[in-house]
Design a protein that fits this description.
- By secondary structure, the protein is mainly α.
- Helices cover 79% and strands 0% of the residues.
- It is built from 7 helices and no strands.
- α2 packs antiparallel against α5 (90-123) and α3 (54-68) packs antiparallel against α4.
- It starts with a helix and ends with a helix.
Amino acid sequence: HFNTIELSSLALSKLFSPQFFIYLVSAVILVFINWGLEIYKWQVLVNSVVAIKFYDAVKAVISGVSISLFMPNRTGEFAGRILFVPADKRIETTVVTFYGSLIQLAVTLAFGLVSYFVLQHYHHFSIPFVNALFLQINLPVLLIIVVGLILISFFFRKKLLVLFHSVLLKLKYI
């Protein structure tokens, strides 16, 4: 039986420890690095359609995240980001943003799989609900999807962009 006063004083002592402060500062720095990279990535993607300044990219990404808080499945990110693009370039910008999200998904899956195997091999890490059957059946399928997305993005980039653009143009007139 724990005494609540002892437990709370223990938690407070850890909260104000130098190690916690280092973790907190590191996390805040990594948040800014992550947002900076996201803004830069979106600016590079959109610059293939229309020139956009870094400050405008910052406003677009922040507004996209803000709008996505109120919409399901991050759909608001597209809506918020294209508000800062000229009206005649919004369809192309949506296509390029979707393409960027597709590539980011493939890279995230690839690094997640590699990280899982490294943790499992060197640290005997396992997730309780991931059993041998999952690894035997779903893992090869997931690997094929990741490699396929990466290969498709490199070899058919122009064709994919044209396809997405034509689909969005058709949706615009429906």
